[in-house]
Recover the amino acids of this structure.
């Protein structure tokens, strides 16, 4: 039985898209959909969305202030408001576009492809490459909701399985011999411990880094 399961898992990974057009391997922020979250803690977002099951809202940036990237000294206090780098009008338009795209995917394909990604692996295709690639590490399936057109959007965890990046695991193993760890099966995931495991796996590549507090709302599908 174990042999059959192993073969099924191997076959499943063979079907993954390992090209750089896949945002699971080469994430690039969209100008019209999705939202980049700044000055927040990935562990806090996981706790609020998944463990506490609370909805979260989005806070726009001041039009006169460019928000600093998240660091140990600038991480925001844990609350249910996700800080973003977008001014109010642009933020609401991107959320609206994201909402309609997610709804269309559910209606036409029956698949939710909207996730909050926690943590990014910054990696390079070769020692000589100058272009950094970004790959999300932890994927939380979410939904955008609102009761009326006048209401602000709320972000909720759907209750589906929180997962690691299977495409990243397959590509790193096949091309670099790196074993990106699976998420533990415990009910509560220790986000920091998982990032520690990824950092240990990429140690042979000194330029590679784990950006622990990179957080994005976006569309990711492993096919």
């Amino acid at each position: 039985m174990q042999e059959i399961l192993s073969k099924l898992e191997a076959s499943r990974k063979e079907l993954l898209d390992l090209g750089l057009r896949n945002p699971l391997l080469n994430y690039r922020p969209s100008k019209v959909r999705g939202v980049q979250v700044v000055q927040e803690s990935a562990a806090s977002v996981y706790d609020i969305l998944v463990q506490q099951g609370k909805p979260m809202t989005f806070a726009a940036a001041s039009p006169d202030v460019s928000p600093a990237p998240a660091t140990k000294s600038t991480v925001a206090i844990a609350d249910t408001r996700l800080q973003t780098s977008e001014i109010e009008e642009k933020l609401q338009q991107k959320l609206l576009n994201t909402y309609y795209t997610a709804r269309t995917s559910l209606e036409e394909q029956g698949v939710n492809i909207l996730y909050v990604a926690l943590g990014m692996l910054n990696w390079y295709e070769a020692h000589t490459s100058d272009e950094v690639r970004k790959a999300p590490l932890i994927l939380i399936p979410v939904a955008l909701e609102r009761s009326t057109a006048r209401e602000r959007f709320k972000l909720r965890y759907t209750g589906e399985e929180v997962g690691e990046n299977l495409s990243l695991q397959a590509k790193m193993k096949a091309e670099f011999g790196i074993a990106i760890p699976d998420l533990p099966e415990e009910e509560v995931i220790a986000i920091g411990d998982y990032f520690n495991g990824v950092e240990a796996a990429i140690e042979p590549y000194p330029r590679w880094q784990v950006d622990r507090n990179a957080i994005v709302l976006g569309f990711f599908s492993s096919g």
Remarks:
- Residues 70-75 have pLDDT under 50 and may be disordered.
- The beta strands are 35-37, 57-59, 81-83, 114-123, 133-145, 154-157, 163-164, 209-219.
